[in-house]
Design goal:
This protein is an alpha/beta fold. The chain has two domains: 10-79, Winged helix-like DNA-binding domain superfamily/Winged helix DNA-binding domain (Arc Repressor Mutant, subunit A); 86-198, 3-Layer(aba) Sandwich (Rossmann fold), CATH 3.40.50.720. It is built from eight helices and nine strands. It has a seven-stranded mixed β-sheet with strand order 5-6-4-3-7-8-9. Helix 1 crosses helix 4 and helix 2 packs across helix 3. The two termini are 24 Å apart. The structure holds nicotinamide-adenine-dinucleotide.
């Protein structure tokens, strides 16, 4: 996010890409305004939360009018740095890593996996969807040549910390960690942890213990 972004609550910040994706669709279908109720139905966030989120960035909908789609879209594009391409490195070209390379976030035209790394000599020198796969020995060199500050970690858990230490030294500022390992990083480094097994377990727990009418957004 750009530096000029005011401090908004993290929960709000996490919802911005969701709002942005929906507004882009609305805009391309020619819609000029949207109510918080319509937004709420589409993104499955309750309308009070949407109104509160939007109030943080001064987008105050008018009663009976709703929000101006163009205004919101311009605001989100700027806030989410959509005009700027963020290059990403992927470490670990196994099952999960290969799936990400094949997907490569092409629908978000502002993020792209630029290079991938693995220790497997058979993978070195190959490309997946035009993304080159380098050997881990080249990590520092490639990252220092390119303007890459974000990494996705899809390696076995036991090697995650050692690799993280190397990434931190190579000027990586943010890590999307898919391994079950909990990573130690300096306070200046941002780590988002996506543990699919934990998510699945918690989904099943909620399914068993909470009737659907108790669901809160
Ligand atoms: N596959 C899934 O659906 C899934 C789901 C949830 C979490 N995860 C987690 O994601 C991670 C990757 O899972 P996977 O299924 O893709 O595993 P995988 O074994 O298919 O792939 C791991 C890759 O990392 C490489 N690697 C090993 N040591 C390395 C090192 N020191 N440096 C760089 N690369 C190295 C391997 O050569 C391999 O290509 C694991 O931590 C796993 O627990 C996977």
């Amino acid at each position: 996010m750009s530096n000029e972004t005011m401090k908004i609550p993290q929960a709000t910040a996490k919802r911005l890409p969701l709002y942005y994706r929906f507004l882009k669709n609305l805009h391309s279908s020619g819609k000029q305004r949207v109510s918080s109720a319509e937004l709420s139905e589409a993104v499955k966030v309750d309308s009070a939360t949407i109104r509160r989120d939007f109030s943080y960035f001064g987008a105050l909908g008018k009663k009976g009018y709703g929000y101006n789609v163009n205004y919101l879209l311009t605001f989100f594009r700027k806030t989410l740095d959509q005009d700027e391409l963020t290059k990403v490195a992927l470490i670990g070209v196994g099952n999960l890593g290969t799936a990400f390379l094949n997907y490569n976030f092409l629908k978000n035209n502002n993020t792209k996996i630029e290079c991938a790394f693995d220790v497997d000599p058979n993978k070195m020198g190959t490309t997946i969807r035009d993304v080159p796969v380098f050997h881990m020995d080249e990590l520092e060199k490639v990252l220092s040549n390119d303007d890459i500050h974000v990494a996705i970690l899809t390696v076995p858990a036991p090697v995650a910390q050692v690799i993280t230490d190397r990434l931190v030294k190579s000027n990586i500022k943010a890590i999307l960690n898919f391994t079950p390992a909990r990573l130690n990083v300096p306070a200046s480094i941002r780590v988002h942890h996506i543990d699919l097994a934990v998510e699945l377990q918690s989904l099943i727990y909620f399914l068993k213990h909470y009737p659907t009418e108790d669901i809160e957004e």
